[in-house]
């Protein structure tokens, strides 16, 4: 109830606020829409530098001359002659089998034991339960909250213990010696170094006689003019426009289209010239164009087609000098049928025709 009272007070304040700005000396039986003057623009011409002054360069190629030059074609190097080593045979003593010991293993012995572990702690918390045979439509009204406590969980685990670890006893094993023959170097190998001289030849090659250079040429700058639109006078001034009250509600325009097309026929253009165009030229009101289709055909196609048809009316009015800012176009497809002829319903062509309509209504801008 408090919210309803606040809403009534808010609406009353809005009505009072608008009443302070209503037109004086209104005509009985007429309706008024509040229009805000649009921005006005003018064209100005400015000169700008279309291209800057710059320099072009013409290259004068380099000139060459032929010279002779003695060049190295094979570097000096060395050749190496290998003299192999001379060997002799000697006898070498070695331990064929080292002294050691044999180990006997005494295995480990084991016992058993057990221990108790806590596998899950003691817990508690709230749990919610929906009561059966709840008389309320809202099941949340029949929810009970219970504080539940769960005891801890334990488990006894058996395990093996070590009584005595494994160990070994040692028994000695005697070693054994032997000899083998070995070839050793008597005279080491050597390398004899032999010098190989370098080789040369005379070649001819071209070298730069006169380097290449660039010859500069200055190209002057170029200016052009541009015409642009600038704000001449800021709009925003509110005025009241007197209109017939029925123009505030959707009014059907007898505008007809070819099947599946958004192109205006000559008859439809004449209808717009005689009805909607004078209203737009004699006032500053804004108008909304609303187009509809019948239910036949694909829903998405009908939606797109209705928007194209509304756009075609707006574009025609703009071509007649009406500012696009005073116009809006909306397509409703088959969403606002005036009769029962929806998808799948058998209707006459005349009944379908009543749904294929274009409407307009005056808006307060």
From TrEMBL:
It is found in: Cell outer membrane. Its main location: membrane. CDD domains: OmpA_C-like (cd07185). InterPro entries: Bact_OuterMem_StrucFunc, OMP_bac, OmpA-like, OmpA-like_sf. Pfam families: OmpA. The keyword Disulfide bond does not apply. Residues 1-19 form the signal peptide. PROSITE patterns: OMPA_2. SUPFAM superfamilies: OmpA-like (SSF103088). This is OmpA family protein. It comes from Winogradskyella jejuensis.
């Amino acid at each position: 109830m408090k919210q309803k009272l606040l809403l009534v007070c808010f609406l009353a304040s809005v009505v009072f606020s608008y009443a302070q700005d209503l037109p004086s000396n209104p005509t009985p039986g007429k309706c008024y829409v509040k229009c805000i003057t649009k921005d006005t623009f003018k064209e100005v011409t400015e000169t700008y530098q279309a291209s800057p002054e710059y320099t072009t360069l013409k290259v004068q190629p380099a000139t060459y001359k032929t010279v002779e030059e003695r060049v190295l074609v094979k570097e000096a190097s060395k050749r190496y002659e290998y003299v192999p080593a001379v060997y002799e045979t000697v006898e070498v003593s070695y331990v064929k089998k080292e002294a050691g010991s044999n180990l006997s293993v005494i295995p480990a012995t084991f016992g058993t034991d057990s221990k108790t572990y806590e596998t899950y702690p003691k817990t508690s918390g709230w749990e919610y339960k929906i009561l059966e045979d709840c008389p309320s439509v809202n099941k949340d009204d029949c929810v009970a909250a219970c504080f539940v406590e769960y005891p801890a969980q334990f488990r006894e685990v058996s395990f093996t213990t070590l009584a005595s670890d494994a160990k070994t006893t040692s028994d000695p094993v005697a070693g054994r010696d032997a000899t083998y023959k070995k070839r050793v170097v008597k005279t080491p190998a050597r390398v004899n170094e032999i010098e190989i001289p370098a080789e040369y030849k005379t070649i001819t090659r071209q070298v730069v006689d006169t380097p290449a250079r660039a010859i500069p040429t200055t190209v002057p700058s170029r200016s052009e003019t541009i015409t642009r639109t600038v704000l001449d006078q800021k709009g925003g001034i509110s005025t009241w426009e007197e209109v017939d009250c029925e123009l505030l509600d959707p009014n059907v325009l007898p505008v007809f289209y070819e099947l599946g097309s958004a192109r205006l026929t000559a008859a439809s253009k004449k209808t717009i010239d005689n009805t909607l165009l004078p209203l737009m030229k004699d006032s500053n009101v804004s108008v909304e164009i609303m187009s509809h289709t019948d239910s036949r055909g694909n829903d998405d196609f009908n939606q797109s087609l209705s928007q194209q048809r509304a756009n075609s009316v707006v574009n025609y009015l703009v071509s007649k000098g009406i500012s696009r800012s005073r116009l809006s176009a909306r397509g409703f497809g088959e969403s606002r049928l005036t009769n029962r002829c929806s998808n799948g319903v058998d209707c006459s062509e005349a009944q379908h025709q009543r749904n294929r309509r274009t409407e307009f209504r005056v808006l307060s801008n």
